[in-house]
């Protein structure tokens, strides 16, 4: 429920992101009531929870921020302690709105910004969720709040009635957040601006199963992975997987091809193509039965090499590890990104810092308020 290749001829253009995730919970035994996590380009940079009561860096290069602000971590600790109290109050408010009493309840928040280092285009987002459902989100273009559920309408009217805060929030998401993102990217450039190519494997569980093209070990995550026949990209009989994290900071992705209707003599016309932003040469893997890794008799798999032969196992281990990290850090925050007509849409499940619990109205510089 809660919920290698190294080479760097040219640094790729990347859509950089700065995101902060906050989770307040009640009724969850042996788990912090409040957790805060920061990520730059999906790399965890800081952490705080209500048990440790201290904001700490998770990357060595994040220590550089104290050269710019010596009291940075003390300031972050104070902010998190304040937010912790507000999240506790917001859970009580949400429970009253939904006519709930006991049980497990979770308030989730995500805010941050994105910056394309090639075009200079930026985007910002501030989103809230309650018990795994969208609650309220900030529309940057209209500077108004969107309430997808009736219980959030009160919050929408309350926050829409604070024009000074909405202006300050827009300024934060489009200016201040982007400036900090650029600083963080510069601090961690040796990590965040690196380029790594993946290993690409073809996998098939049974003779009637789809053939999976699995790319693992690439960085950054601005990639294209697709099947094509001859020189034409395929869109039918294709199932795209999500980009997932590896334990070493790289990424993995898979795309399935349904071969049930493909004639044996036509297999050679199919190939899997991996493209990495900033890298001119594609990695092309032909659909060849001889190179497909299976567990149904084509290749004898020895126990000690099973993990190496079957990246699916690696995928499972990585997913489990990622889920543990998510539980520890943000209690099942899930972000789904889709591309619609070239625009990025970030699904809710999130929001932004709040003010102190006793604050009746929002400060114009705050990114979050009492519901």
Q: How would you characterize the overall build of this protein?
A:
- This protein has helices at residues 72-97, 153-160, 163-187, 189-192, 306-309, 311-330; strands at 5-6, 15-26, 34-40, 43-49, 56-57, 105-116, 122-130, 133-139, 144-146, 196-197, 199-204, 211-218, 223-229, 232-233, 238-240, 244-245, 251-257, 270-276, 283-286, 292-294, 337-340, 343-346.
- The chain folds into 2 domains: 5-191 and 328-346, Murine Class I Major Histocompatibility Complex, H2-DB, Chain A, domain 1, CATH 3.30.500.10; 199-323, Sandwich (Immunoglobulin-like), CATH 2.60.40.10.
- Helix content is 23%, strand content 32%.
- The protein is built from 6 helices and 22 strands.
- The protein has an 8-stranded antiparallel β-sheet with strand order 5-4-3-2-6-7-8-9, with helices on both faces. Strands 11, 12, 15, 16, 17 and 20 form a 6-stranded mixed β-sheet that branches.
- Strand 13 (223-229) and strand 14 (232-233) form a beta hairpin.
- It has 371 residues and is α+β, with helices and mostly antiparallel strands.
């Amino acid at each position: 429920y809660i919920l290698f290749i190294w080479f760097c001829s040219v640094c790729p253009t990347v859509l950089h992101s700065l995101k902060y995730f906050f989770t307040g919970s009640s009724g969850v035994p042996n788990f912090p009531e409040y957790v805060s996590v920061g990520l730059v380009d999906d790399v965890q940079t800081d952490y705080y929870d209500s048990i440790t009561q201290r904001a700490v860096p998770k990357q060595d290069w994040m220590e550089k921020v104290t050269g710019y602000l010596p009291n940075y971590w003390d300031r972050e600790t104070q902010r998190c302690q304040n937010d912790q109290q507000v999240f506790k109050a917001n859970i009580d408010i949400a429970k009253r709105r939904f006519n709930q009493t006991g049980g497990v309840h979770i308030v989730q928040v995500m805010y941050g910004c994105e910056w394309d280092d090639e075009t200079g285009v930026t985007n910002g987002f501030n989103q809230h969720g309650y018990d795994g459902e969208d609650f309220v989100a900030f529309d940057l273009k209209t500077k108004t709040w969107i309430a997808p559920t009736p219980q959030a309408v009160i919050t929408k009217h309350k926050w829409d009635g604070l024009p000074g805060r909405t202006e300050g929030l827009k300024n934060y998401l489009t200016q201040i957040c982007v400036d900090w993102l650029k600083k963080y990217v510069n601090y961690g450039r040796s990590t965040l601006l690196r380029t790594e190519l993946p290993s690409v494997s073809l996998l098939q569980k049974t003779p009637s199963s789809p053939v999976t093209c699995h790319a693992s070990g690439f960085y950054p995550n601005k990639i294209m992975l697709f099947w094509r026949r001859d020189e034409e990209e395929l869109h039918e009989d294709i199932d795209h997987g999500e980009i997932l994290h590896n334990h070493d900071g790289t990424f993995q992705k898979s795309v399935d091809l349904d071969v049930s209707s493909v004639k044996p003599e036509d297999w050679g016309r199919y190939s899997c193509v991996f493209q990495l932003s900033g890298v001119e040469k594609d990695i092309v893997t032909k659909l060849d039965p001889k190179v497909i890794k299976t567990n149904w008799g084509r290749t004898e798999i020895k126990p000690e090499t099973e993990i190496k032969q079957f990246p699916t196992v690696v995928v499972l281990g990585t997913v489990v590890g990622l889920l543990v990290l998510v539980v520890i850090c943000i209690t099942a925050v899930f972000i789904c990104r889709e591309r619609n007509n070239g625009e990025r849409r970030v699904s809710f499940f999130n929001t932004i810092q709040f003010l102190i619990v006793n604050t009746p109205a929002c400060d114009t510089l705050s990114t979050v308020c009492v519901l």
